[in-house]
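Hi R.,

Here are the chain sequences for the assembly we discussed:
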Amino acid sequence: MQIAIIGASGFTGGELIRLLASHSEGEVVCATSRKLAGKAVALTHPHLRGFTDLEYTNPDVGDIDVDVAFLAVPHTAAMNYAGSLIERGIRTIDLSADYRLPKDTYEKVYGVEHTDYHTVPYGLPELHRNEIPRSILVANPGCFPTGATLAAAPLAKRAHTIIYDSKTGVSGAGVSPSVTNMYTNVGDNFTAYKMTAHRHVAEMRQEMGFLGSSASVHFTPHLLPVNRGILTTAHILLDEPITQEEVDALYEDFYAREFFVRLQRPSLSGVRGSNFCDVAFEVEEGGKRVVAVSAIDNLVKGASGQAIQNMNLMCGCAEADGLMVVPLQP
Amino acid sequence: MQIAIIGASGFTGGELIRLLASHSEGEVVCATSRKLAGKAVALTHPHLRGFTDLEYTNPDVGDIDVDVAFLAVPHTAAMNYAGSLIERGIRTIDLSADYRLPKDTYEKVYGVEHTDYHTVPYGLPELHRNEIPRSILVANPGCFPTGATLAAAPLAKRAHTIIYDSKTGVSGAGVSPSVTNMYTNVGDNFTAYKMTAHRHVAEMRQEMGFLGSSASVHFTPHLLPVNRGILTTAHILLDEPITQEEVDALYEDFYAREFFVRLQRPSLSGVRGSNFCDVAFEVEEGGKRVVAVSAIDNLVKGASGQAIQNMNLMCGCAEADGLMVVPLQP
Amino acid sequence: MQIAIIGASGFTGGELIRLLASHSEGEVVCATSRKLAGKAVALTHPHLRGFTDLEYTNPDVGDIDVDVAFLAVPHTAAMNYAGSLIERGIRTIDLSADYRLPKDTYEKVYGVEHTDYHTVPYGLPELHRNEIPRSILVANPGCFPTGATLAAAPLAKRAHTIIYDSKTGVSGAGVSPSVTNMYTNVGDNFTAYKMTAHRHVAEMRQEMGFLGSSASVHFTPHLLPVNRGILTTAHILLDEPITQEEVDALYEDFYAREFFVRLQRPSLSGVRGSNFCDVAFEVEEGGKRVVAVSAIDNLVKGASGQAIQNMNLMCGCAEADGLMVVPLQP
Amino acid sequence: MQIAIIGASGFTGGELIRLLASHSEGEVVCATSRKLAGKAVALTHPHLRGFTDLEYTNPDVGDIDVDVAFLAVPHTAAMNYAGSLIERGIRTIDLSADYRLPKDTYEKVYGVEHTDYHTVPYGLPELHRNEIPRSILVANPGCFPTGATLAAAPLAKRAHTIIYDSKTGVSGAGVSPSVTNMYTNVGDNFTAYKMTAHRHVAEMRQEMGFLGSSASVHFTPHLLPVNRGILTTAHILLDEPITQEEVDALYEDFYAREFFVRLQRPSLSGVRGSNFCDVAFEVEEGGKRVVAVSAIDNLVKGASGQAIQNMNLMCGCAEADGLMVVPLQP
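And here is the predicted structure of the full complex:
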C-alpha cells in the first residue's frame, strides 16, 4: 500500500511518517513540499533519521500515483488536490477543514468560496465508523472538536448547555515562527487566545446535532506552555438531575468497544505521542452539572493518528495498525 | 510600624518579606517557624539575601509584640493565634481560610470545628474597601476566589449561571514536596485536579451573594506547568441578552477607581510578581454568554500582596505602599 | 521469552514495559513491587493502560522463574537479587550501579561493602558488543556515562583533558517527591546540582581507560526544567592540534555500523522516547579544543532502552528489537 | 534627571522602564521606536500599564534633549547615535557591542567597519568602577561576559585554562519570532547553539587580560527552556593546586564590597528579575580544577540593570538606586 503525504514538512506530516514507520502494510513513498523539494525529509525532521530516506518532492497532483494520500495542507489548499486524487481512485484523507462541514457552513465560517465541494464522512471513528469504509474521501476532524466531542458525546441527549473550555499545546500553532508560538510569549505563561469565537465550534455543534442533542454549544480555547496535547473541560448543564452511576453507565456503554478511548483520569502526558483519548467525568452535587474532561495528543488523535485510523478503516486494515504507540510519560 | 509574620517559611511568607522590603512605613521584625527557629531567613529564601538579616524564631504567640501580624499558617492553625493577637490590639491579617466564611459554612466546608470564631471583613478591597479600616482582624481571600470574583463581579446581577474554569500555577500547592507538585507530574503536562468540588467555591458563592447575584456558581480548577499565577475563565450565562458596549460600560464603571484592576488582555506573565488583576471580557454572538477572563499572581494579589493591601487600609497607609512592583515579563 | 522486571513501579520499570510491548519475542510476565503488590501496573503507570494487564507481585527472588530479568532497583539492592537469578540460568541485566565498576572502586565510590560481586561486561554495546553475548549478567551503564562516553570515545586517545558538562532532565531524580524534583524548584529554573564530585565520573574514567585514553576526566552535572534527556557537552583538550576533517573521519569511522548513534545536531527532543544517541562535534580555531555534544533520553539509551539492547545481544535477538521507537518531536 | 531610551520596544527597553519606575532621581521622558511611533508603550509592554503613560516617538537623534540616554539598539546601529549624544553632553550608556572592544577587535569579530569609534570604559562595575564616573559614554557588557567574568575573576591569575559552559534563557534571542525562540523548538528541550565560536568570547578574553590572566579562554553557549537568566559554569584549570580555603578567601576578598555579587548557591530563580549575580565555587579533589558557577538575569545584570548601575555611577547617584528589586522566586 503506497502512501503519499501532500504537505509533509509540518508537524502533522512528520507525525504521519513517524507513525506509519510501524504500519504493517503501508509505506510512505512520496512526501511533498513546495519549498523543500530536493531536500531530505530527515533534514527538517531530524528525529526521523534512521526511519526514512525520502526526499521532498513537488510533483503535479496528477502525477501522484499511490494507493492512499494524506492532505496535510492548510484549508483552502486541500480543495485543490482532493478532486484529482479521488477521481483516480486514490483513497484520500484530508486533515484540513475543507470537507468537515456542509458547504454553506464552511463558506460562512471560513469566509471563502468552496470550489470543489464533496459530501464526505466526518472521520471521527467513534461516532462515524460505519460511514468511513464506504468513502474514497474522508474529512479528518479538527483537533479541538475531536477531544471536545469525545468528552461530551455520551451525555449529548441530556445536555441543554455545553461549554467546552479547552487548553492546547503550542504545536497546534504550526511550524512557522510567530508571536503566538514564541517561547517568551508562552513559557511560564498562560492565556485565552479566543474568548467566544473560534471556527472549530461549528464542528462541535455539528457533531452534537448528529448525536441528537439540542444543547447550545460554546467554546473557549487557551494556550498552554506545553508542546503537545489538548485537555478539554466540558461543563455540561442538564435540565434533569443525573446520578454518578447513570453517568458511569452512559460512558462505559458508549465507549465499551473503543480501544482508543480510555476511561481514566486524563492528563496530557498520559496520552503523549499516542492515539488515545482519556476521559473522566464527575457529577456535581445536585446532579445538574457534569464535568467531563478529555485529553488527547493534538498531533495524533487530533490529527495524524486519527487520519491513519481513518485510512485503516477505508482500506480494510486493522484499525490500530501503526497506532500501537504507547504514550510517553513523563 | 513593626510587623510579625507567623509562619514565614512558606511561599506566602517569602512574598510578604519581598514586598515589605519596599514598604515606606512597615518593617518585618519577627518571622516565625517552628522547624527553622534559629536559622537565617535567607537560608531558606536565598533570593532574599541582601534584604533581610532576620532569623526565624518560635515565640509563644503571647510574646509577639508588634503593630501588625500576618498569619501565614494553614487553616485551623490560624484560629489558635488570632485571638491572642487581636485582644492585645495587634492588627491581624489572616491569610488562611479560618475567617472567610460564616462559622457554620466554614465548619461544613472544612469539616472541622471552629474554636475561636469572629465575624470579620472579607479582605477583597475592590468589594469591601469600606469595611476593612474598621476591623482589627481581616480575612484575606483565597487565591481562586480573588481572581474569579474580580472577573465576574460587574455582571453579578445579570448572570443566572457562572462557571469558573481556573488554571493555577504550582506554587499554589505549597513548599512541601508531593506528587502534586513534582516536576515529572506537572512539566509539559496539564490536568484538572478537582472536577466539581473544591472548597473555594463557598467563597465565590458568598461574594456573588454579597453583590446581590442570584446566579448559580460552579468551579473547576486545573494545574498548569507554571510557577505562579491563576487565570480564571468565567463563563457567564445571562437570561437577557447584553451588548459588548453595555458590558464595557459595566466593567469600566465598576473598576474606574481601582489601581490594581487593569482592563486589558490577561496573561500570567503580564501580572507576574505584582498585585495586579488584569481582566478582559467578550460577549458571544447572541448576547447571552459573556466570557470574562482574569489573571492574577496567586502569591501576590491571591495572597501576600492583597494581605499588604489590607494592612495598608487597616493602618491608614497608602493602599499601594509596598505594592508598586512592576510585573516581570517575560 | 518470559521476562521479569524486579522493581517495576519506577520510571525505568515503566519504560521497560512500554518498550517491550513492541518486542517480537519477549513478554513481561512478572512486575514486582514491594509496596504495590496486588495493584494493577496500569494504576501507577496509567499511560500503559491497554498494553498490560499485569498486577504487581512481590515474590521471593528464588520463585521468579523466567528467561530474562531486569533489575530496576537501587544500587545495593541489586546485589541481593543477582546471585539467585544467574545461578538458575536467568539472563539478568542490572540497571543499578552494583556491577559497573571493579569491586574496590565500587566500594570506595558508593561507600558500601559489596556482598556478592561478579565481574561482568559493562553493557555499553557500542564499546563492548563482543563481551555481552558471553555473559549471563550485564551491568547496564549509568545515564550520564552513556551519553558522555559516546560523545568523546572517538577522541579518547588524542585527549589530555576531558570535561563533561552534563545537563539532565528531572526524571533522573526518580519517582519519589523531593526538594530536588519539586516543580517550583525546577520549573523556569536551572542549577548545577553537583560541582566537582558525582559518582558517575568513575564509570566515565573507566571507559576512557578501556579506550586506551590517558586523559584526565572531569564531570559537572546540572538539572534542567525538562522531563527527559541528557545533553552532555564534552570539552576535549588536545596536546596536538587536529583538523575538522580528521575529527569527522574519526567519528564517522567509530560509529559507522552503529544504528543507535546518529551524527547530527543533538537536541533532547530529537531523541525523546527513543534509544538514539545523537552526536555532533566541532574543532575550535587553533585545533586544540574539540567540543563534542551528545543527546540521549536518560530513561531509554540511558537506562531501559540500553538494557533491552543488552538483552537482545545476550539472547540472540535482533539488536533493535523493541527499540524501533521513533523519537517524539516536538 | 531626564532619560531617553533609544530603541525601547524590545526586552531591554521594557526592563529599563520597569526598573527606572522605582529610581529616585531619573524619569524616562522619551522612548523611541521607528515602527511603533505614536503608539502607547503600554500597548507592547502591557505589564507596564500603570507605570508609564509614554508613547513611542521617532525623533532625530539631534532632537533628543535629555540628561541620560540608553542605547538599546542592535550593534552597528548604536554607533550612529552615540556621537551626537555625547557631543551635546548627554551621558550615554550603550547596551550594544559597539564600544566594548578595541576597534580592530570589534571590526574583526563583528565583520563590519566601525564608523565612529571612541575608547570608553567597559561597564562592569565590579572590575571597572573607578573608570566609569569619568566618562560620558560607557559600553555596557554583553550578557554572557558579565556572568562568566564574575564567576572566574578572583581566580584569573591562577588559571591556565578557563572553559565557560553557559546556559541562557530564551529572552536573549530578542522579541522577534524566529526558529531559535519558537516554543516547539525550545520547550521541554535543550541544545548547544554554538559549539566553539561565539562573538562574546572576545569580551571574556579581554576582561581576563585586564585582570592580568594569561589563561586561554573558551566558551560554549546553550539554550534553556526558561524565559530569563544565564547560568555559567566556569571550569577553571590551574597549574598549581589550590585548596578550598584559599579559593574561599579569594572570592570573599574580591567581592567583599560588592552588593550585587552574592556568594551563595546560584540558581536562575534566585536572581530572577534582579541585578544580582550569585556565585559559588568548589575545588575538585586534587586541587587543579575549580568549578565556579554564576547566575544572573540576562535582562538585568546582563543588560538593563547593569546599564542603570552604570548610569548611577556616571551621574553620582547611589549605585543601587532603581535596582533594589528583590528576585522573584519561585
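Chain A touches chain B at residues 161, 163, 165, 167, 184-185, 187-192, 195-197, 218, 220, 222, 224-227, 229, 231, 233, 235, 237, 265-269, 272, 280-285, 289, 291, 293, 330 (CB under 8 Å). Chain A has two domains: 2-119, 144-298.

Let me know if anything looks off.

Best,
T.
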